[in-house]
Amino acid sequence: MQNIPDIKLGIVAVSRDCFPVELSRNRRSRVAAACRERGVPVTELETVIENERDALQALEEAERKGINALALYLGNFGPEGPTTLTAQKFPGPVMLAAAAEDTAQDLVGGRGDAYCGLLSASYNAGLRRLRPYIPEYPVGDPGDIAGMLAEFIPVARTVEGVRRLKILSFGPRPFDFLTCHAPIQPLFDLGVEIVENSELDLYDIVRAEEGNPEVRRIAAEMADELGEGNTYPELTQKLAQYECALTKYLAASLGASRYAAFANKCWPAFEKYFGHVPCYVNSRLAARGIPAACEADIYGALSEYMVVCATAAPPAILDINNSVPKDMYEESGSAFGRYALSDLWMGFHCGNVSSQCLVRPALRHQLIMHRLMEPEKDPDITRGTLEGRIQSGPVSIFRIQSTSDACLQAYVANGEVLDVNPRSFGSIGVFAVAEMGRFYRHVLLEKHFPHHTAVAFGHAAKTLFAACRMLGVEDVYFNHPKGTFYPTENPF
Length: 492
Known about the structure:
- There is one protein chain.
- The protein is an alpha/beta fold and 492 residues long.
- The chain folds into 2 domains: 9-162, Rossmann fold (3-Layer(aba) Sandwich); 164-477, no CATH class.
- Helix content is 39%, strand content 22%.
- The protein has helices at 21-38, 52-64, 80-89, 114-127, 142-163, 185-190, 199-207, 213-226, 236-253, 269-274, 279-287, 298-311, 326-331, 333-336, 367-373, 436-445, 461-470; strands at residues 9-14, 43-49, 69-74, 94-99, 139-140, 165-170, 193-197, 259-264, 292-293, 315-322, 344-349, 358-365, 383-390, 393-402, 408-417, 427-432, 452-456, 475-477.
- The chain has a 6-stranded antiparallel β-barrel, surrounded by 4 helices.
- The radius of gyration is 25 Å and the shape is globular.
């Protein structure tokens, strides 16, 4: 997957000077061995941090070894000052974890008290206003810690990616989609850069690629990908020119940033000037880890990018679109399993889901736009969607968003796409999220989230929740189980 950080995780042991340093060193080595057994990539730092000089030495060693995410491991109580000083000065994401005691047979010379030391380290991290990643239960034996390190890698990748992201936008956020408007101040607070351009700028860079031989190569690649689904072979040249322009612009526009995502206005003027819809190209960019959010949805692009980093797989941005009809529910009852009708909904967009996530994808036209722009005509400028039923399997839905008063909030929930024919058009699937009806009412509606949701093809809620917390998002909502009330829920 392109366009996401390559995390090289290091582990450094810390040791309080009144405890045996060998206790921390040996426990760190056992964690590293457990990581090797489980295939968790981690690099040991030879330095053990007992004081500030050691902290500086460890930071130099981490830089020398190319480490961009760091686990601070309390093999014993640990020195709270040097430990958190290291976290403060390290330029990437940091995790805190502590060693469990080894055996009841050695609780005198072999007792490390890291359970206590982690409390002190956490307090000191608060004094320094740090947000390290702390696992749900951050104390364990070497195998436990190896599991925690494995879970930290996608969290670190997401946090590091956001902090080095640039969102490139073309076109004003449209009046008919006020839900795509949100203050951009929180983007800068996160470290995200934003560059907003006009649709004329987009038109200019696309026209500049006329005659570029790279366009022919991309068109041939599109034809191979689509196979029997290439229903408009004469259209691929235009689509390829558009894709060529965007990828070339991205490479030239990164500047001080390392990663990028697009948020582009896609209708209604777009079709009249470009002669196609951008959906299929958006799906291809997403497959490479470059989200291209529709309707100039800047926070949608950020949400999609976080999904890419969390999963290292293509994301999608979909409308939380329509309810499942009762007769469909009744006819296909066994396919819905344990889910109630209110747990179900259809996720839809015009045609921007990557081909590997669809069943029998094909190039089509956008029906809704066709009604508006080409009534009583054969489709022409509204062609270019990638349509198909979304493959069944586990998914997560996720959105990070600024409120109108520039405060960040987010939601995330695990669910699945069911093996049910949605019997409709576009990139579409029947989604199921436990207690979705209540989640829809008391989070999505109550907290004023927009209609777009980022979709991860796999369960990524745990990673995304942790990444949001590390990035300073105070309110991260999730679907409550039955019997657990939301603050605004009527208990009667």
